[in-house]
Amino acid sequence: xxxxxxxxxxxxxxxxxxxxxxxxxxxxxxxxxxxxxxxxxxxxxxxxxxxxxxxxxxxxxxxxxxxxxxxxxxxxxxxxxxxxxxxxxxxxxxxxxxxxxxxxxxxxxxxxxxxxxxxxxxxxxxxxxxxxxxxxxxxxxxxxxxxxxxxxxxxxxxxxxxxxxxxxxxxxxxxxxxxxxxxxxxxxxxxxxxxxxxxxxxxxxxxxxxxxxxxxxxxxxxxxxxxxxxxxxxxxxxxxxxxxxxxxxxxxxxxxxxxxxxxxxxxxxxxxxxxxxxxxxxxxxxxxxxxxxxxxxxxxxxxxxxxxxxxxxxxxxxxxxxxxxxxxxxxxxxxxxxxxxxxxxxxxxxxxxxxxxxxxxxxxxxxxxxxxxxxxxxxxxxxxxxxxxxxxxxxxxxxxxxxxxxxxxxxxxxxxxxxxxxxxxxxxxxxxxxxxxxxxxxxxxxxxxxxxxxxxxxxxxxxxxxxxxxxxxxxxxxxxxxxxxxxxxxxxxxxxxxxxxxxxxxxxxxxxxxxxxxxxxxxxxxxxxxxxxxxxxxxxxxxxxxxxxxxxxxxxxxxxxxxxxxxxxxxxxxxxxxxxxxxxxxxxxxxxxxxxxxxxxxxxxxxxxxxxxxxxxxxxxxxxxxxxxxxxxxxxxxxxxxxxxxxxxxxxxxxxxxxxxxxxxxxxxxxxxxxxxxxxxxxxxxxxxxxxxxxxxxxxxxxxxxxxxxxxxxxxxxxxxxxxxxxxxxxxxxxxxxxxxxxxxxxxxxxxxxxxxxxxxxxxxxxxxxxxxxxxxxxxxxxxxxxxxxxxxxxxxxxxxxxxxxxxxxxxxxxxxxxxxxxxxxxxxxxxxxxxxxxx
RNA sequence: GGGGGAGUGUCGGAACUGGCAGACGAGCAUGACUUAGGAUCAUGUGCCGCAAGGCGUGCGGGUUCGAGUCCCGCCUUCCCCA
Length: 840
What we know:
single chain; 840 residues; four-stranded parallel beta sheet; RNA-binding
């Protein structure tokens, strides 16, 4: 009965059968516990690469495992289908973005199906479908109506290659490059739409409702960048108020000058005539430097005196106002008080321009002198030169936890010259994009009524198909008068203009987990019944690169939806869940996979020609082998370099399993004597494997789970030429092996399951139950150490007593040699089930 | 400069709350079967040593009967932020 294992044959066969029998249709079932497993949806670039497989196949394994564990699992898939590459293809190859996108989707859908994942394709959502982006637009209007979306003129980051603006999160690295194309961004003053994500800064800093990797939590916390301090109102001699934010109000008495950002609106008004030429030249030059250059601690500080003075409200002192580019308009109010004695950058600046340095925090046991100190002192100590605060203790703590800071804030508030304040690094989310292939922002500009949202009933605002693409990448919407001009929904004027910008595609992907629930629903963004059952997402998987983009946006989006009342019709079916907890966090648990590098340890890229193409690999080895190899070869969170030889290991494993199942079926019931110890040994290994594989898949340790299955394979091979193959223990072992493999290599498991007469489908069988007592070893290797060095290993019964163990150890020949001529042992350490250490 | 990871054979990687370092696999070596082998099977494979034995988890200290694991100080490297 030697059938050959031809993966490609059985894989397409079962994929079709699974689809025909609706095996992966997931339906609401209030009687079963639910599990919403989600993996980040791909951009339809045209080809599924190995990175997609690496992200998705293990996620699929985990979802399949949860299903066998008795959960009703939803594992959907879709496409994040708006975006620039489609438009660039249109410009370059004269193919419409829609056509390009949808033909890519159909190819990628085929490739995804070849993976054999349990995706429920009936729930597929494509963000560029009008039935999808209608609701993206609906959300925009919801946010607008609730004051969460606004338009303002602002200096924004602009990618000249993509010819569009970017959100702050989408500008990467020290040299500020576009997240997509790595071109260096430039600053532009533009009128743009923003979402008030900063209103949610504190809410987003609360991670108590989610179990996400610490790394992501740290990155988001860092990104939001909360700093506690005070806002203090300085005034110019002219009488302008100059509020400054400081984290160190305890050093207010040490402020010897002020610095304004070159873009500060008051600069021109404050500058005296004598200084005007110099200041103007400086401001112009500063505009050309990048933010990073300006903020760098190493860079030589530059600046010019405005000629104006301000009054320090705490002591009435008159201090000079300078302009310097190390102060950012985006930080606080664009002006700072400079305390050179206790701030490194202020110190460097003061020394360079000969400005006064006054010590107001004296460290214990030291005596700093402003005239001679060689570096700013930023630690704690005792306040000096600070009037009534002299002697107040200042610690290293931030904000109110610092007694000095806390007392000064109280005093500022009592005297109404300042108040406690919190500053964030987070900026509002810029969502306007000056491109065609995105969801149009559903707003109308009327000369009389101003900005008017498109009525909800008129959604979606459809993208016109008949557009011309120009090489500059300028949005074709601007060149389409029929689309551009419309009727004002409020006053009926016919020369109102549509908003011509489209939305950041991160907007589309911020809520796709809700659209999957009911992609065809046309009266609401999602079906509340489905939402009541499935939400929130229980397990999310995807790349870490989205830590401060998608993963932050979607947390914001869910909170904004909550506050707009979008979740009101949803009544959680799970009595353990509170509506609030569900709708604050979109995804309860998150796991991030690493990156697969090419064999040369470089990034895989077509231009380098070092890509491992999944289609080729499936053709050569089969999908099961590719899946298993990706899970076996790396620590999932870590990733690593592809090894084209390494896959042989799992190919052999699958071939061996095939032979074990198909060649060693017991053919006769002939009673042969099989030693009971052999049966027990086999059963023990089987149960050990169940327990280990279960624990491993539970915690995303796919590589070790497959290693354990290979060990079971090795054990089965040892028994395969013995009468053990005629026992029910053997048959049970084979059944178990297939069940444990089912989530990892679904096709071969299904095929062999059918071969041994199992009921369709293996993927609907319960996960095997491991039994600790069957798994327990009968004998153990007792390690005997002398002074911590291993000197002997002795097989002993597992339930050996401490005194027996010590005695056996002391009587061992190998040990005797070390004990000879020595004094009696000082100490004998016994670790149950492991070792005896004899200390001389 | 701040935050977060990571350093274990030739390679990918194992090692639970401190208890046999190197599971599992790749590769390699030797042998077998073969006209043939990028198939299959067997054996071996951390380093030094003929052996007894010694040395080994980035480096240097420490705690402990015992440290890849805990503590202190470094080095290298990756990511994020400045």
